[in-house]
Amino acid sequence: MNDSQLYCQILGISSPWKVKDVAVDLSQKEIVVEVTSSAKKHKCPECGMRCSVYDHRVRQWRHLDTCQLQTFVGARIPRVACPKHGVRQIHVPWAEPGSKLTAMFEALVISWLQDASVEAVRVP
User: Fold this and answer.
1) What gap in Å lies between CA 124 and CA 122, rounded to an integer?
2) Residues of the chain with confidence (pLDDT) below 50
C-alpha cells in the first residue's frame, strides 16, 4: 500500500475523489494531502441534480496528526452551475460544509470537550 492509498482509506474517499499527492515537510513538521476529483459533473448540494463543473475553489482542512506531524487536507473543490440554484460549491466526503476541520478531527475535538473546558482544548 502506498501513501496515496493509505490516505484514501484514512479519509474514506472513493471515486471520483483520489489522493493526488502527499507532501511531507519535516522542517515545518507537517503533511499536506492533496485530494482531487476527476468528475466533469457533480451533484448540486441543494437539489442533488448532476451539474457541470463551473470552476474550483482552493480549500484546506486540518486533519488528525500523522506520526506527530500536523496533517492538512487540501483540494480544489468544484463549484457546479445548477440551473435552479446557480453556482454552488459541492460537499466533500471528508468534512462538513463550511468547516475548516475534517470530520475525524471535529469528532476528536468534541470528545475532548466532553472532558475539558474550551480553554483547555483551544490551540494557542
Assistant:
1) 6
2) none
